[in-house]
Design goal:
There is one protein chain. The protein is of the alpha+beta class. It has 35 helices and 20 strands. The strands form six sheets. It has a four-stranded antiparallel beta sheet. Strands 5-4-6-7 form a four-stranded antiparallel beta sheet. Strands 14-13-15-16 form a four-stranded antiparallel beta sheet. A hairpin with a 2-residue loop joins strand 1 and strand 2. Helix 29 runs antiparallel to helix 30 and helix 34 packs antiparallel against helix 35.
Length: 890
């Protein structure tokens, strides 16, 4: 018997990071097809009718999937497999059809089921979304080359963001890029469809620097100020602008009138003649306005204006009267107006574009900037973010009412997406970072690029604004719409456009497009370091927060009961199996060569080895081994690759036998040798002598097995899912009415006592007290039922209650925030996770305001403070510098 060649645990093809092929238990489709080739002759006539397939095509791999699919449909149709209630009549070829189905199609279906269970099957639809992003990236590059537009940083974002046509480009820090890429994969794995997130692809260089600008000066020469145009001309131009440009233009036209131009090119000087040696004191327009307005104004102080730009500056004495003060007031208000100077630029296609003076000057100076490495996503044309929707209404109560209406229109897929964002742990999900759009409809793409006009109305509506106004009941069945489709002008009431109306009445869906700043390493507490940009040094202060920030916490929708379909999806055990397979890297080559039970033992033995390599642990150990080369100044450059490099280094070299790396390598070597022996038995070959792993093999294996999340990120994620499952299952059992009466009190006590049950500490104490009171009295079914109803009403599955189950301090944090904001539930929800509202600030204020030890708010504050002290290493989110002043609090 020949000796079996030693098998390397690290195949060369895997060293480059390629994943092993998905293993299916059934034969290859080509082999199965050849086995039944002789039986296909009877199907050729019908296949040819439906698929235009001939004998010549049978050997072509190109049409093989179509042939197999067509063959399956024909066989199922002939044998009535999809209609078992119908009797199948005998026909001459029936036995052959049954043979084809038994030998080929059923085996193919088995293979298909195995593939569908594999985690990568769930991720593959997400690749289609990434394909859309790749198309947007190509379009972006073409447009940048043609137009050579300057790329400006969004001043309201930590990241550089550019929106251009059908693409959104975002340059983020390495840690933000890692978080976004990983969170996208996790959300897709946990979703039903595998494509729950807007796709994104890398763009290595988005530079437009050194590119020619054909006709730029000619284009800029036609720039006009809106205020120089007549109203009729301006109204015509507005029709050719995008909705966003229209909003910019309207804000610009609504700002205060410009002040006297003399106020713009003069400096102001104060002189006090009472001083023996008078000094000339320069003062800005803002300071002068404040001085004249607020006083005290001393008539002996003389005001001069200084004309600049002449050979010898002249001082002109100014008479300060009501007219002059009103001019200064106008100048002050004009400088504080939110909109910059705007210009309208005529385009080659008879359209118009709005350009700010800043961008115009950049174009004239040709100060075009490199965007650098970034991630590109498709711009969802019919999506609104909730921040934009809120700004469409003058009064907050109107915008809030409309937001609630939109959320109530969400279908099951949209609601599930909201839950997924909480499961993955998005830490920056405020109103501008979550979008809403109509759910997919086969005909929606035919209307998305159209513009619509309402009869008797002058403004045109994009499809995006059409569905929004329909939901706001500004458009109904009697509204006459006019639009052009396939070169035909259509003018009909909406009620007579059934396809369009069906699209508009479709359910809404959430759009997940911003997933960086996620993957917290604790479900209890996160810490952030805050500093001021204007500070002379880099001093920061560590503040603490509940590790969730979600726009949905501001809404009433959060308290709506979840549909059964969503709860069933959350309890689907296959979701977590897929997740663990991907996170734990069970597709690593070394794992693929081991038995499943051995793989689980190896992953368990790996846990203590990877435990020190966590993002938060690095923060608290900066400057100490093994993180002595890291500094907080470059914290945002640290990624999972940084942790993996440190981990690999820790696993190599000589180790004590009792060390965790030594224990791990000993176990892995033993499992590997057993797997090699089993392989030799199956192949009837002599087993090769066991060979210990070389240092190079250990290095490759260590790289392969490091998880796709840090150890704490992994544990935290698994714990969130476990809490969610425990709460929903416990609630389902308690509400099922299947618990015997004698066990009901015990079951209620167990449910209330669990940490995953979504209760504040006050609610838990109140329910526990009532349970104790019932225990000491004779059985009373009415009292017991009332208590059960109260528990079920308080803990009914809602978005908010599921979040409270996953984040144990959220219930108390929200209750304290309600006191902090005097019962304003919207502001209380918005404050959760917002770095302007640290937990300890709320606790201090609550203790000062409610000093009695037995006061519920005081007790809540003390309870939270105690929990914070007990948490030694909260999740570390990063360092933020901001000069925005906190709002008026409480």
């Amino acid at each position: 018997m020949a000796a079996a060649a030693a098998v390397s645990p690290v195949s060369p093809s895997y060293v480059s990071g390629q994943s092993p092929a998905i293993q299916a238990p059934s034969p290859q489709p080509e082999m199965l097809f050849q086995q039944t080739f002789s039986l296909l002759n009877l199907l050729i006539p019908e296949l040819n009718k439906k698929l235009n397939i001939t004998h010549m095509d049978l050997a072509s791999e190109r049409v093989l999937p179509a042939i197999i699919f067509g063959m399956e449909n024909l066989v199922r149709e002939k044998l009535k497999l999809d209609s078992p209630e119908e009797e199948t009549l005998d026909f001459p070829e029936k036995k052959q059809y049954e043979q084809i189905y038994g030998q080929t199609i059923s085996l193919l279906n088995d293979a298909k089921k195995q593939i569908q269970k594999h985690p990568y099957h769930r991720i593959s639809p997400g690749a289609a979304e990434d394909g859309k992003a790749a198309m947007a990236r190509g379009e972006l590059l073409i447009q940048l080359c043609l137009n050579n537009r300057p790329i400006k940083k969004n001043q309201n974002s930590k990241h550089m963001v550019m929106v251009h046509g059908g693409a959104v480009a975002k340059r983020s820090s390495p840690i933000a890029t890692y978080e976004e890429r990983t969170a996208n994969q996790l959300i897709n794995l946990l979703s039903k469809t595998g494509r729950a997130v807007v796709g994104a692809v890398e763009l290595v260089q988005g530079s437009t620097k050194d590119l020619a600008i054909p006709g730029l000066q000619k284009k800029l020469a036609g720039a006009v100020r809106p205020e120089t145009l007549e109203k009729a001309t301006l109204d015509e131009i507005k029709k050719k602008l995008s909705p966003i440009e229209n909003v910019l233009l309207e804000r610009y036209c609504a700002r205060p009138p410009p002040p006297d131009r003399n106020l713009r090119w003069r400096d102001w000087i104060l002189q006090d003649p009472r001083e023996p040696f008078p000094d000339l004191i320069p003062i800005s327009s803002d300071d002068l306005y404040s001085f004249l307005k607020n006083g005290p104004w001393n008539q002996e102080v003389v005001l001069y204006s200084v004309q600049q730009g002449v050979s010898s500056p002249r001082l002109t004495r100014i008479d300060v009267d009501d007219s002059f003060i009103s001019k200064i007031t106008a100048a002050y208000e004009y400088t504080k107006a939110p909109s910059p100077d705007l210009f309208l630029i005529p385009q080659a296609d008879s359209g118009w574009k709005v350009m700010t003076q800043e961008v115009l000057e950049d174009c004239e100076a040709k100060e075009l900037r490199s965007f650098g490495k970034c991630r590109v996503k498709p711009n969802i044309s019919d999506m609104f973010n909730f921040s934009t929707i809120r700004r469409m209404f003058e009064k907050p109560q109107h915008s809030n009412r409309f937001v609630e209406r939109l959320l109530n229109q969400l279908g099951a897929d949209g609601i599930l997406k909201a839950m997924l964002m909480g499961e993955v742990g998005l830490l920056d999900l405020y109103a501008a970072n979550i979008g809403i759009a109509l759910s997919d409809h086969p005909a929606k793409k035919h209307y998305q690029e159209l513009t619509f006009k309402r009869i008797l109305e002058t403004d045109e509506l994009t499809f995006q604004f059409l569905w929004l106004r329909y939901l706001n009941e500004e458009i109904n069945d009697d509204t006459v719409l006019q639009f052009r489709m396939d070169k035909r002008l259509i003018t009909k009431p909406l009620g007579q456009l059934p396809e369009l109306k069906e699209i508009l009445e479709n359910s809404l869906d959430l759009v997940i497009f911003d997933t960086d700043m996620s993957l917290s390493e604790s479900n209890l507490l996160q810490s952030m370091e805050l500093g001021k940009k204007s500070s002379k040094d880099d001093r920061t202060e560590l503040k603490f927060y509940t590790p969730i920030r979600s726009f949905f916490l501001e809404t009433k929708w959060k308290d709506m009961s979840l549909p059964k379909e969503v709860i069933d999806s959350l309890l689907d055990p296959e979701r977590e199996k897929r997740l663990r397979y991907w996170v734990d890297k069970k597709d690593a080559p070394i794992y693929q060569r081991l038995k499943p039970e051995a793989r689980d033992r190896i992953i368990e033995a790996l846990t203590p080895c990877i435990a020190p390599f966590e993002f938060s642990h690095m923060r608290y150990q900066v400057g100490n081994p093994p993180y002595d080369d890291l500094h907080l100044s470059n914290w945002d450059q640290v990624t999972l690759a940084s942790l993996r490099t440190k981990f690999v280094q820790s696993m190599l070299g000589p180790k004590e036998e009792t060390s965790e790396p030594s224990k791990f390598w000993t176990l892995l070597q033993r499992e590997w040798d057993l797997a090699q022996g089993d392989l030799a038995k199956k192949t009837a070959a002599a087993a090769a002598a066991p060979q210990p792993f070389s240092e190079e093999q250990k290095r490759i294996i260590a790289n392969q097995i490091f998880p796709r999340l840090s150890n704490r990120q992994k544990k935290t994620l698994y714990q969130r899912l476990a809490n969610e499952r425990e709460y929903l299952k416990g609630y389902g059992e308690l509400s099922s009415k299947l618990i015997p009466e004698e066990n009901l009190l015990e079951k209620m006590g167990e449910f209330v006592a669990k940490g995953s049950t979504p209760l504040t500490s006050a609610e838990r104490t109140a329910f526990t007290t009532r349970l104790q009171e019932i225990k000491g009295k004779p059985p009373d079914l009415g009292t017991l039922q009332n208590l059960l109803d109260d528990i079920l009403d308080t803990c009914v599955p809602t978005y908010f209650n599921v979040m409270k189950a996953m984040y144990p301090l959220l219930a108390n944090n929200f209750a304290l925030a309600l006191t902090f904001f005097r019962g304003d539930r919207q502001r209380a929800g918005a404050s959760i996770g917002d770095y302007h509202y640290p937990l300890e600030d709320m606790i201090v204020k609550a203790k000062k305001q409610f000093k009695q030890p037995d006061d519920p708010t005081h007790m809540l504050a003390v309870s939270l403070a105690k929990r914070i002290r007990e948490i030694k290493f909260p999740s570390y989110t990063g360092c933020f510098f901001d000069d925005r002043e906190d709002e008026e609090q409480g």
